[in-house]
Specification:
Two copies of one chain form a homodimer. In chain A, the strands form two sheets. Chain A has a five-stranded parallel beta sheet, with helices on both faces. Chain A has a five-stranded mixed beta sheet with strand order 6-7-10-8-9, sandwiched between helices. The radius of gyration of chain A is 19 Å and the shape is elongated. The first copy, chain A, starts with 6 loop residues before the first strand and ends in a 6-residue tail after the last strand. Chain A is 30% helix and 21% strand. By secondary structure, chain A is α/β, with parallel strands linked by helices. The first copy, chain A, is built from eight helices and ten strands. Chains A and B meet through helix 1, helix 3, helix 5, helix 6 and strand 6 of A and helix 1, helix 3, helix 5, helix 6 and strand 6 of B.
Chain lengths: 234, 234
Amino acid sequence: MKTGGRLYGIGVGPGDPELLTLKALRLLQSAPVIAYQSATDRESIARKIVSQYLPGNQIEVLYHLPRALEPEKAKSIYDQEVEPIADHLASGRDVVVLCEGDPFFYGSFMYIFTRLSDKYQTEVVPGISSLMACPVSLGVPFTYYNDILTVLPATLPTEMLITHLLATDAAAIMKLGRHFTKVRDILHQLGIASRAKYIERATTTQQRILPLDEVNPEEVPYFSMIVIPTKQKL
Amino acid sequence: MKTGGRLYGIGVGPGDPELLTLKALRLLQSAPVIAYQSATDRESIARKIVSQYLPGNQIEVLYHLPRALEPEKAKSIYDQEVEPIADHLASGRDVVVLCEGDPFFYGSFMYIFTRLSDKYQTEVVPGISSLMACPVSLGVPFTYYNDILTVLPATLPTEMLITHLLATDAAAIMKLGRHFTKVRDILHQLGIASRAKYIERATTTQQRILPLDEVNPEEVPYFSMIVIPTKQKL
């Protein structure tokens, strides 16, 4: 039997605090400890999303993971970063880990889950992913009927991106950052640039939607996406 | 300028009423008219999910769409089915359309959106999709780092399913129903059956998780999914 505190991984959605689920809100407010990730020099985005709901008497645990880290390097860093969370659980305190978007969809919570869920009772609450939020914010029906959808990291080599884009009905291209120009050029080459929609920081107060060719490649943030919706007419 | 009532399409999530977002709940309770889909002989799943939140004084509009309809046939049926919704909007009444999962992700709301959003002010609220809910209910981290994810309808031809499954890191196979046996055999053929997880009616009180080879192909419901999570170790 598992003893100690309970571990919760809750998706807090893409940015709009109202896109939290009722379940995430309930758990968020019921635990004595909350934990969240932040780049070392910035405010935690996940904490900012839920800040208005925090009761104010919780212990807060910050963990750090530099972005775009190779998986092998990430492993050893996470081994260290989960320790304060594990200590609270061992002491019998429930810990709610905040996750931007959805915890199991490219989420950093998965590193915590794989390290602690064998030992502690664990519950995960799905969240609104940017994959759903971006098409909605863009106002474009995304996939329907028998469409194939492919989610592609922009970090992939050009040939691989082309192969997948040719084989799919709809696509989302994530992790654009410094790979934006490569992706934009591929979309033009394949003749699908006019269908492609660019959005950054969807559902936040800083949300921006721009025509693909008006995006400044030097200013593409991590939280951006190109959505290629179904070409089927409904 | 658009006049008349406002049209809302709100995702109500996969089944657990607590997976509604705060925004969906607010809009749901604020409109004089709600609309939802149902197979002609069954209770509406979307309405059932939110039933405990309904204030009890709303006009309810039911629309029908037989499942697995060819897009061309669906078009003419939807032309008719949106009429009662359009009438309420024309009369100045806001209408909230309930959508299982997410409205723009294989959702029937898209048919309503394409017909009415040009004429009436429209707002869409993303919902928790089964794509996020199923891996969470299965307890399997789904995609991470630079994974490619492909969402495949089981209705695709065998060769096409094989090509896509070989080219992706993680996959979700939807619309299983009578195509289950074909998909299961492909997964064995490709040697990935042991990674594949089967779930039906995720997050509802009827949720079932079964080993792939213990699923009775005669009893696979529409609301089922096979999840093939990343094989990367975190």
